[in-house]
Amino acid sequence: MLAALRRDIHAHPELGFEEIRTSGIVRKMLGEAGIAVHAGLGKTGVVGTLKLGDGSRRIALRADMDALAMPETAEDRDYKSTTPGKMHACGHDGHTVMLLGAARELARRKSFSGTVHFIFQPAEEGRGGAKAMIEDGFFKKFPVDAVYGLHNMPGIATGSMAVVAGPQLASSDRWMVTFRGIGTHGAKPHLGRDAMTAAGQFLTALHTIVARRVDPLQPAVVSACAIEGGSFEALNVIPDTVKIGGTSRAYSAAVRDQIEEEIGALAQGSAQLFGIKADYRYIRQMPPVVNDRDATRRALAAAQSTLGAEKVMTEFPPSTAGDDFAMFSQEVPGAYVWLGNGPAEDGALHHNSRYDFNDAAIPAGVRFWTTLVEQELAGV
């Protein structure tokens, strides 16, 4: 049943804050299981609440529901996306189904004492779904002592997990620099102030931030990902402005602050060198995901109980990707774990047009969530 449901959701992907169909399925299945449902938190977000016994501990489990704005190119799936330009290329279809399965199983067993909130979050893929749920009062409506997240990982065998304390995912920020010069004829550069040359100087220097300014023992990424200036229809015109934008990643608040400062210093220095101006914006999107030690210990115990200690890795490299689960775990202790998705078929990792969630991973995910709740809320 859960595999069929996962494939149904896969065939009907919805982007962030558009998860009308998906959240409708979630509401229906939670309600049928006797779980209290709160809909509309963060637009399309859903929170299911199950309270049993007199235990005072309260925890939250989070799954994301949204798809990506990209085409699905695999041709051999009868459940391929039916919506052009939209695809579940990160496994959120699987995450949704595993948490639904666990919620229904816990409602059936009634085997814990305390409160668990099942968070079905919209818009994880860069659209701010966690922030929207929190701004709509998640922690006021559903106070919790700890929060847990799970993400599939191609390359880890199905039936295996990685549970590690400390940094798991990097902060994810955007930056933009606009160089403002004086445009002129391409044959008469001396009559203007060249924003294009300043932008080139800036791009060359940008990569010295990580190589020469950040502590070599502190991982960081600064990448320029977009540039805009001039026209290929007017190759004899030096433009007035050149705009450059990109992303930056870090695992610590100090390095994140340093990157913001260094990009700005390079932008202003490059502009001054060529006698022009630079406008700089640094947009903080989400903090890093850093696992709390006690929450990680609890998640590890559940994983080992579920799968066996030999199937659970306690060392696994962090990812430079980001996840707005960090918005929840910066408010209360949290742990974010990796669930094996099996080999990356044809090299298809997350955000690849051939990626697919592995249905064989569903049972392990459901068992992990169920065991975590039963151990966390044992009423002792």
Molecular structure report:
Keywords: Hydrolase, Manganese, Metal-binding. Mn(2+) binds at residues 90, 92, 125, 151, 351. 33% of the residues lie in helices and 26% in strands. With 380 residues, it is of the alpha/beta class. An eight-stranded mixed β-sheet has the order 1-2-4-3-5-16-6-15. A four-stranded antiparallel β-sheet has the order 10-12-8-13. A hairpin with a 3-residue loop joins strand 1 and strand 2 (45-52). Helix 1 packs antiparallel against helix 3 (92-109), helix 3 (92-109) packs across helix 11 (362-376) and helix 9 packs across helix 11. The relative contact order is 0.20. The mean pLDDT is 96.
Give keywords.
380 residues, alpha/beta, Aminopeptidase, Alpha-Beta Plaits, 2 domains, 8-stranded mixed β-sheet, 4-stranded antiparallel β-sheet, 11 helices, 33% helix, 26% strand, elongated
Strand order, largest beta sheet = 1-2-4-3-5-16-6-15
N-to-C SSE string, H for helix and E for strand: HHEEEHEHHEEEEEHHEEEHEEHEHEH
The CATH architecture designation of the largest domain is 3-Layer(aba) Sandwich
CATH topology of the largest domain: Aminopeptidase
Task: Please state the CA-atom Rg, rounded to the nearest Å.
Answer: 24 Å
- The general outline is elongated
* Tally of discrete structural domains: 2
| Overall pLDDT metric | 96
Q: List unreliable stretches of 5+ residues.
A: none
Strand composition percent: 25-35%
| Distance separating the two termini | 34 Å
Outline the biggest β-sheet: 8 strands, mixed
CATH superfamily of the largest domain: Zn peptidases
Determine the fraction of residues in helical runs and give it as a percent range: 25-40%
CATH class of the largest domain: Alpha Beta
Structural class from helices and strands?
Answer: alpha/beta
- The total of beta strands comes to 16
Number of helices: 11
GO molecular function: metal ion binding; N-acetyldiaminopimelate deacetylase activity
InterPro entries: Amidohydrolase, Bact_exopeptidase_dim_dom, Peptidase_M20, Peptidase_M20_dimer
Binding site for Mn(2+): 90, 92, 125, 151, 351
Protein name: Amidohydrolase
